[in-house]
Predict the 3D structure of the following.
Amino acid sequence: MPLLTPEAPLNRRERFRQWRGVRPFWGAVMLVVSGVFLLLPAYTTAEVGDLLISISTISGVPTLFLGASMLVCAGSVLVGPKTRIPAGVGALLLALVALPAANFGGFGVGTLMGVLGAAATLAWAEHSGDRSPAATATRKLPTTLIAD
C-alpha cells in the first residue's frame, strides 16, 4: 500500500549523483584536465629558491586557443548533454592538433586526457527506460532453431 506522504527530499549528494547520471560527466572531467594541461606549461612559472623557471616558447597563442577551446568543449558537454557528438569530435581534433602545436600537447598528458575524454564523451549513451530487475526479466531472449 503506497503511503500518502511525499518522498523525502534529496540531499545535495543525491541531487549531484542524479545530475551526473544524465550527462557524460567523466568524459567532461577528462576534457577539463586536458584543457588545464594544455594551458599549464606555457603560462606558468615556478620559483625554486632564487631560481625562476619559465617555459617560454612561441606557441603561446595556439596554446591559449587550444586550451580554451578544450575547456569550452568540456563546458558544453556538461551544460548540454545533447552536444556530446560535436563537442566530442571537436575535442578529439583539438587534442590531436595540440600534440605538435602546444608543447607536445601539454607534455603528452593534455593530448592523452583529451583523446580519452573525447572517446568517453562520444561513447556515452543516455539510460533508456526502467533499469529495474523486473523490467529486464520480462525481455524475451532470442531463440535458436536447430535443424535436424
Observations:
- The longest strand covers residues 45-48.
- Strands lie at 45-48, 51-54.
- The mean pLDDT is 82.
